[in-house]
Every structure is written in C-alpha cells, then in structure tokens.
Design brief:
Blueprint: H1 27-34, H2 40-55, E1 58-65, E2 71-75, E3 78-85, H3 87-111, H4 116-119, H5 125-129, E4 151-160, E5 166-174, H6 181-194, H7 196-202, H8 210-220, E6 231-234, H9 243-253, E7 256-258, E8 263-266, E9 269-272, E10 279-281, E11 283-286, H10 309-314, E12 319-321, H11 327-330, H12 338-346, E13 353-354, E14 358-359, H13 363-371, E15 376-380, E16 389-391, H14 397-409, E17 414-418, E18 424-429, E19 432-441, E20 443-446, E21 450-451, E22 457-461, E23 475-482, H15 492-509
Parallel strand pairs: 3-23, 5-13, 6-7, 6-11, 11-12
Antiparallel strand pairs: 1-2, 4-5, 4-20, 8-9, 9-10, 14-17, 15-16, 15-17, 18-19, 19-22, 20-21, 22-23
C-alpha cells in the first residue's frame, strides 16, 4: 500500500498543508496504511457491505423499480478511509455552528411574531410572506423555549481561501427534517469493528451518545406542565427513503415509532393507540413534511399525519420537533441573509462564512449569472438532494441553455454560486485509492442549550470529478474523526506495537 504523501500532492486541504507537507493529524494513519497488505482494504470493504446488508442499513430510491415493479433499496456506499479533523479546527466549527443555529432560531421566532428583521429593512417582506415555506398558520404560535429547529443539519464544505489554505464555508442549512445521523453512528460502529487499534492511537472523540443527547433535547422541548414527557418518532412509513433512520433512532432512544394512523386527538390532546389503551403524547419528533402533518390544516388528502394536530400544538399541549414552518429558514432564497441575521439578532460577526451567492431576482445579479452560466452552480431555491441544479463547468451547452430559459422565466426561483474548488479526501474506489470531493454535515441539537457530538456525516462524491455528494445521485459516506482536545500523540514504541498487532489481526482474519 502506497503512503498518502507519495500519491496525493493534489489534496492540500485535508491531508496536506499548503506547503504539501502531510498534516500532523494524518501522520499516524498514513504510517498505518503504508504497512497494510495490498488486499486488506478490499477485504474489509466486503466485510462492511455484508454487515450493512445484514443489519438493513439501506435507503429507498424514489422512482426506481426492480424487475417485479417494487421500489428498490440500496446500500449507501461506505468508504473505509476516515476524514480526520484536529481538535482546534472542530472547536472553531462548533462555535460557528452554535452561533448560526442560535441566530436561525431567533429568525424563525421573529418572522412568526414581530417580524423585526423585515421592519428593519434587512429582508423584503415578500421574501418571507410569499415564500412557499412560510406557514401563516404558525403566526403568533408560541413554542417552548422559542426553539423551532431542535435538530439542524448544517452542510459544511472546505475550499481554499485567499492565502491558498483551507477555509470552512456553510453551503446549506437543513432545519426541517435533516437526515443522515444514523449513518454517522453506524459508520463509527463499523470502523471500530474493523480497525479498533486505530481509535486508541488517534484518541477519536466519541459520537455514540448522540441518541441520549437527542432524547434530552426532545424532552426539554415538552409542554412546560409535563413532568415525565412521552416522546414518539413520527414516520411516513416503511416506504420513505429514510425509514431505516426513523426506526433506528426510535430504538436507540427507547421511544415508540408511530405512523399517523397510530395517533388521534381527543379533548385537545394527542394520544397514541397502544395495546394497553390510549397513551398521551407530549413530544413528536416528526420525520414528516409540513404539508402532511395535519389534513385539517395543510394537505387535505394526507394520510401521513394526524387530524387536529396543529390545534393541539397551538394550545401548547404537544410539542412538534422540528416545528412546523421551519422551512422558511433553510430555503435557499433566505440563505444569503444568514450572516446579516447573526449580526442583527446576536450583535456578532459570523464565525462561519457563507459561500458567495448571487440572488437571481436582483437584476444586476441576474445579468451577471446569465453571462457566466458555464462557470457557476445554479440552484433552485426550493430544491433539495442535488436536484434542480446546474453545475456549469460539468454541463453541456444544451443543459446550460435550458437553465438560461428557466432563469429568464423565473429569476426569483434561483440562486447562483461560484464553483468552489472543494477539498478532496483519499477514498477507496474500484481502481484503488483516489481523491474524491467531500462535505460535512454536523448535527446541532437545540434544547435548553445548543450542543452536538464531535463530528458529523462526511459525504463523498464517488464519481470522479463530481461535486454532488447526495446518496440519491451516487454519493457515499465516511466516518468523521474529531481528535480530542489535549490528547497527546501515542508514543512511537506503543504505536509500533499497536500497528503490528493490527497487522497480525488482519492477517488472521483474512
């Protein structure tokens, strides 16, 4: 196995410094990998796939059918080479994430109450009130602790700054029903099973306590008069692409997984049907979109929610996490304003920067975007999952012209960003180890305090040269190792012993 520093001088932002020297926090892993037999990684990958299939860690592919006409499920490809983040970098990221999510929750409370940010002229009123994600039914509704997004997934990318070093940027905020945390947890279990000695050598901060923090956050959001709240996870059902995650989190927290048909409203409270009779529900961790929550208020044809739920919510007799209407804060048309929100609500400068963004409904921005389509990434403001977007440098002339017409027809429906030179991470692919672009989704929990586990889901674009990391479009995942603050490097003699033990263990298992 070839060492990283002999192959990947193209990767300055994850493994290498600007001077093409391997970064300190990757040296132990580099030394370990250089000692492994050439077929070790392929065998470990086969083992991982076998275990994932046995456990049932899959996602449904919408629109895809097998030969019998049934929906297909796939494994999310899992890469064996971890993404490692040193403690000081994570500490800065964590501060920035806490700041950002705090400001976004302040914004959500504001737009459904006083709308001070509109009155101050920082955001135009129609950007809020005419936005498809704004829920008029939430105006004036008070929620516990003024927290609307209890679980946020913030997508982070790394790209070169003006000095040629790596800098973190926020690419997207996910505040409605962010997914992926189950893969973060299962990836860690798999890596600890396959490579146990590496964890001792690296002092990797744990993530296994996330379900405990999640349950703590959900219980903290319960109606104030509830002493011992009952929490449930509301799922659309087994055909949802993230159903594995819904079931996994319910099991890990020790709470019930329910569907809409399991819930009913009586006397202005929500109950679930059980074999022992009705049980009152105090907190609903919903994995159902707003439109399907309550057929009496939103989509009348919905069978996924519970009739009368929003009335109980308005009365303060049940908590919904995340709150209805949070989508207004993660819509891509609102994203460019988040740095201003931080200054407006917190009186602070943003710690994490946005990616520079052109707002196409502005005439000057639209003119620039139309003249530079081949160099930009164009995104629908309501798009998700890597759909409804144009990556200019990777698109054909016909695709660019199609987007030009869409922009001219509805400029307010799009934003544009430069094509960042995203950092890459060595990834084990069919041809061997090769660089692939990555992002990071940390999961931020807002209850009585804002907290998170150290790490997140690193997503990787497995197609060579691709910038799209979404699993629905061929992306995979990696384990994310955050090194613990103050941990001392393993002594060389101890490390040598560990590496030899790992090599012997690998040989025995092979």
């Amino acid at each position: 196995m070839v060492k990283f520093d002999e192959m990947y001088t193209r990767l300055p932002y994850e493994f290498f410094s600007h001077g093409a020297q391997i970064r300190d926090h990757y040296k132990i892993y580099d030394e370990w990998l250089a000692r492994q037999p050439g077929d070790m990684m392929a065998k470990r990958r086969e083992e991982a796939e076998m275990i994932f299939r046995r456990v049932g860690i899959t996602f449904a592919v919408y629109g895809a059918k097998d030969e019998n006409g049934f929906g297909t499920e796939r494994l999310i490809p899992f890469d064996l080479i971890p993404r490692i983040i040193p403690a000081h970098e994570w500490a800065a990221l964590e501060r920035g994430l806490v700041q950002r999510v705090t400001a976004l929750n302040r914004f959500l409370h504001d737009v459904y109450h006083d709308q001070a940010i509109i009155k101050a002229g920082l955001i135009e009123a129609d950007q809020i009130t005419r936005n498809a994600q704004f829920r008029p039914q939430m105006v004036g509704v008070d929620v516990p602790n003024q927290i609307y997004s209890h679980i946020a997934g913030v997508d982070i990318v790394r790209a070169p700054d003006a000095q040629g070093n790596g800098e973190y940027y926020v690419l997207e905020d996910n505040l409605r029903v962010p997914s992926g945390v189950s893969y973060m947890l299962e990836n860690r279990k798999m890596m600890m099973r396959l490579f146990p000695d590496l964890f001792n050598a690296h002092h990797v901060a744990p993530v296994a306590h996330y379900p405990d923090l999640l349950l703590e956050t959900l219980r903290a959001s319960s109606p104030p008069a509830t002493a011992d709240p009952t929490v449930v996870v509301l799922t659309p059902g087994m055909y949802n692409s993230a159903y594995f995650e819904h079931a996994f989190l319910a099991q890990q927290m020790g709470v019930e997984l329910v569907e809409g048909q399991d819930l009913f409203v009586k006397d202005n409270f929500v109950y679930m049907r059980t074999t022992r009779g009705p049980m009152r529900v105090d907190v609903i961790y919903r994995r159902v979109d707003d439109d399907f929550l309550d057929p009496l208020v939103f989509r009348p044809s919905s069978t996924l929610g519970c009739a009368g739920l929003l009335e109980v919510y308005r009365a303060g007799n049940v908590s919904i996490c995340n709150a209805a209407g949070t989508g207004i804060a993660d819509d891509k048309s609102i994203y460019p304003y988040v740095p201003q929100m931080i200054e407006f609500y917190l009186g602070e400068k943003p710690i994490l920067n946005n990616v520079p963004t052109h707002i196409c409904r502005r005439p000057d921005d639209l003119k620039y975007v139309l003249a530079h389509l081949k160099d930009l990434v164009i995104k629908e403001v309501h798009g998700a999952g890597g759909y409804g977007m144009l990556v200019g440098p990777a698109s054909t002339t016909a695709e660019i012209e199609e987007f030009r017409q869409a922009l001219l027809a509805n400029p307010g429906g799009y934003i544009a960003q430069p094509t960042l030179s995203l950092s890459s991470c060595p990834t084990f692919v069919e041809s061997g180890i090769a660089p692939r672009h990555i992002d990071l989704r940390p999961f931020v929990l807002s209850g009585k305090e804002v907290q998170m586990v150290p790490g997140g889901l690193t997503r990787v674009a497995l197609k060579e040269g691709s910038l799209v990391v979404n699993s629905s479009q061929g992306g995979g995942t990696k384990d994310t190792w955050v090194l613990e603050m103050g941990a001392r490097p393993v002594a060389q003699a101890q490390l040598q012993s560990q590496l030899q033990s790992q090599s012997q263990s690998s040989a025995a298992r092979s």
